Amino acid sequence: MRADELDPDLAAAIAEIESLGLPAWSHLSVDAARRLEDDLFSGPPEPPVADVRDLAFDGPHGEVPVRVYRPAGAPDPMGAGGDPPARALVHFHGGGWTLGTLDSVDGICRELAVRADAVVVSVDYRLAPEHPFPVAVDEATAALEWVTETVDALGVDPDRTGVSGTSAGGALAVAASLRARDVGDAPTPAGQFLLYPIAGRDFETDSYRENADGPLLTREDMRWFYEQYLRSPIDAANPYAVPLEAADLGDLAPATVVTAGFDPLRDDGVALADRFEREGTLVEHRHYPAMAHGFCSLADRVATAETALSAVASDARSRL
To answer: Active site residue: 122, 164, 167, 297, which one?
Structure first.
């Protein structure tokens, strides 16, 4: 499941990051970690898209900001040109439910919009510890509902709307899918596109032991993120917080699960994909043995990351 060594392109990118001497997330206060992430992920908007709009909707805990990306050549919203509606992805950023902004995930949303030829709606859900579980899940579910109820204004097809997410955002995408199936408080998405998702809370898996010190994400980071997110040990048994706690992962939207060999979350993603397949959810598991957590955000520098993003986009085009 893990290559003998990191991909050379990725190793070079990680060496450059590590040369900055940055502390681990778990060694920082929440405020300091957020400031550091803002500094790390600021940059020019790439790749170009036809249109980007900042909007908001009324969610269950207040107004939720969203950013809508429309790729070049995508149909105009119905009423603006009469073109047929577009496929859409409702995207949830990573950051351990504690970090992350619309700006920090701008690049990968642009990549998904262009490569999947999809309208991408990025969701700025409320963060822990100020807003612990289940606030982020509530807002993720509400965002999916809002997009499918606002199809005319957004120019998207509700039957071709999926959910996507990186890391903690992948957990939120699964939670929204589970809620749609179990509770019915949101429409069923047409697909799930999960990039190195958080899915379990067993810190003694092989991948947690092998990759305890990273790179890019450590076991202690994950303990820290869960400490911010969960209100009590009782939440750790809730499948909307920890998807692998679900009694049944069948009868969900077709999924793509991306995992990386040097990622502490690797075995969580593998277990999620295996359970999808075993319990009746169509799944495409795309594993990259020489990659590490977050690698798809380095598609401009790492050839395998570019390949992985293109594969996810191809899956989205074929399923949505």
So the answer is: 167
